[in-house]
Amino acid sequence: MGRAMTDRAPLSYAQLRMWLFAQLEPGSSHYNQLRVTRWSGPLQVPALERALSELIRRYEVLRARFWSEDGGVFQRAGEAAPVTIPVEELEGELPQSREKAAARRAHAIAGQPFDLERGPLVRAVLLRLQPQEHHLVLVVHHIASDEVSARLLLRELTKLYTAYLQGTGPVVAPGTGQYADYAARQQERVGTPTEADDLSYWQARLRGAPPLLELPTDRTRPARASYEGGEVGFQLPATTVERLGALCQRERVTPFMVLFTVFAAVLARWSSRTDLIIGVPIAGRAEVELEDAIGCFANTLVMRTDASGDPTLREMLRRVRAAVLDGLAHQELPFERLVQELHPVRSPRYHPVFQVMFVLRDFPPLDLAAPGIAIEYLPTADRGRALVDFALELDRTRQGYSGEFAYNATLFERSTVERLGADYLAVLDAMLEDPELHLSRLPVLSGSPREAGSDATARALAVLERLSEEDVQRLLADAGEPPA
User: Fold this and answer.
1) Residue 478 has pLDDT above 60, yes or no
2) Whole-model pTM?
């Protein structure tokens, strides 16, 4: 690797999707990624500016510029210029309100759109809460970064800051390659036997899949999708995490497989559907040389889950395990390339292929340090936006897992999502207690907004939805009702 980003470098499929979105939604900040760290101690702003300048110089994709020409879309690396990090004072806020004020300001900074044609794609602001306490707000457009890249950037930023502070210079070894290599290799893979094999697998896997997982919503789906979002957070108790680990060992599965299975089971009960299509983001760094590279490598797998036949939770887990292993074996096909070939039903009302996502960020805790400075990573919710109808997002923490149900606020009331979240925790607990529990017997305590107060009603409605018109006419006749 090491290919330079020339004046007409190709885009990856993920980059092209985000570029197209920017053309359809000019001024949007939906793909802005926010990262906030607390720096406690005598922060030297010039050293931090030099560190960030070096990172942007080192990784071409962070200073990429995008434009269309002759029917194509291209990118090139802009000039590497010194970075100035503005400092905003929040010391005037009352001590008990500074954290909230800093969080509000961070999200306001993240809400400012990027100009993909002019750049830059990185924005940094320091919020000073006290003389020796700052929040570093770092915003990077998703077209140049992903979750793994964000962690790498923060790790290298602190190492570079330390080097400049100590006068040793940029001792951090450059990454193993530039994003331009990855984007070019994606294009070169089109039409190869390897791509054909991956494409054949996914086409077969998704043949006949329902275009829409219609969850019982509180409001009618609008004619055009809205991105207004909300979040409901929760924490998995330590005892639950311990029992989860024990189950994984017994069943020879990963925490992802168990947590995903429970999510699918709850969705099956809430939707009265047995054919579930769920999007799952993955790191997309199957090759060793990509592990330390910066850019948007993340891909999305489309997990089709079979909940038919009233399976036990153990049987559902086995089905999920097989689907996950097969999917990972064919993970190099970009989701955008799959959509290109599938020609799914397109509607301005919902996301194509899937409308529900499951996200597990199973990374080790991010340890950051600098001389005389305590650095803490501050998790931030993507406030106010929802690219799909509903998503469960889980993050590994030092205590276990923290979670968040992200939802489209034009479809769901917060109270509904809270009930669904309670069901998820109840079913997870039930699975850890008895994996032989059948889907129909799950402790779904709260019910969905359209259930008429009982599981029996929901099951009856589910049966009626699957009857043919002739069956309905016959049932009406048997009941003494005149045919329609």
Assistant:
1) no
2) 0.86
